[in-house]
Specification:
CATH superfamily of the largest domain: Spore Coat Polysaccharide Biosynthesis Protein SpsA, Chain A
Number of strands: 11
Structural class: alpha/beta
Strand content: 15-25%
Oligomer: single chain
Shape: globular
Length: about 325
């Protein structure tokens, strides 16, 4: 048996269509279960979930603490079977999604992490400029040229949250998602599932790409806007720093920023004055990633100071006692 787990918040309209697509899924031979975690929704999400209670092998739970990883950790308590399959509330699986994932998991016993293909599902036709950018980090998509097979340790981040599976014995040992990263409000460091995958990779777990386990990730109309895309770049930059190791700092910031930010500003300016729109947009994207890294450096510095004060307070209490 396997369990599909997703977290949702205030997307009742989209969730209704997604759960409708789940009703068309082929059941794997060992059966399956769906766990939906309502992460503090204030719209009609509760009613939408309830309307599918007799149509899906559904279990739902409410998590009031806002944050996708808080919600996923809550949902993990309801997982059954040997495999946890993760997806999102704006993802439409193909009918054979679970059967293909099950087949690969059963065949590749040496692997603990599995990722399938993620294609775009455009709500409206995309603008021409979108092809100038790497759509993977922007819309959480996978490279269509990726073939079935093992993923090298440096390619583990190719496994993406909208379409990934992890053997449940990993969670039974106590492993959980890191609540300090991932969707939480409108501003956050990206990398909800990636941080966990990279952590598991460092522990020696291996990943496999399942080419035929396919889902479509909805790209909403409002996401096809340059302002939205640039905000996404900032969040992605924040997540990159949060997940990085062995970063060298100077004056509280990663040292490479003092070189890369001026360089990117010059490139962006040169592209603008020479009317090279494609180069300007790409440079603007990279600059916003760097802005995100700088922003997260400040956040992490505040966290360290807060932890230091907490530690000092605990020490004083021990001394006083």
């Amino acid at each position: 048996m396997l369990t599909v787990l997703l977290a949702t918040r205030n997307r009742a309209r989209i969730l209704r269509d997604v759960l409708g697509a789940f009703c068309q899924l082929e059941s794997p031979p060992s059966g399956w279960k769906l766990v939906v975690v309502d992460n503090g929704s204030t719209d009609q999400t509760t009613q939408v979930i309830a309307s599918f209670a007799n149509r899906l092998p559904l279990r739902s739970v409410f998590e009031s603490k806002i944050g996708k990883n808080f919600a996923l950790n809550t949902g993990l308590e309801l997982v059954e079977g040997d495999l946890a399959v993760f997806t999102d509330d704006d993802v439409f699986p193909r009918a054979n999604w679970l059967t293909e994932m099950r087949k690969a998991v059963d065949a590749q016993l040496a692997y603990s992490m599995f990722g399938g293909a993620i294609l775009p599902r455009w709500e409206v036709p995309p603008p021409p400029w979108i092809r100038w950018l790497d759509l993977g980090p922007i819309f959480t998509l996978t490279d269509l040229s990726l073939k079935e097979g093992p993923l090298a340790p440096n390619l583990i981040p190719i496994v993406q949250g909208p379409n990934m599976a992890i053997r449940t014995n990993i969670f039974q040992s106590g492993t959980r998602f890191d609540p300090s990263i991932g969707p939480s409000g409108s501003s956050y460091p990206m990398g909800s599932e990636t941080e966990l995958l990279m952590r598991l990779g460092r522990q020696g777990h291996k990943a496999w790409h399942v080419q035929n386990a396919v889902v479509e990730h909805l790209v909403r109309k409002e996401q096809l806007d340059k302002t939205w895309v640039m905000r996404r770049a900032v969040r992605w930059g924040r997540g990159r720093l949060r997940m990085s190791q062995n970063v060298k700092f100077w004056l509280g910031f990663p040292r490479h920023l003092f070189r890369d930010i001026p360089k990117e500003i010059l490139l962006m300016t040169a592209a603008r004055v020479s009317f090279r729109q494609e180069a300007h947009l790409r440079s603007r994207w990279r600059l916003n990633i760097l802005r995100g890294i700088a922003s997260e450096a400040r956040v992490m510095a505040r966290e360290r100071r807060s932890q230091g004060r907490s530690g000092s307070s605990i020490s004083r209490l021990k001394c006083d006692s």
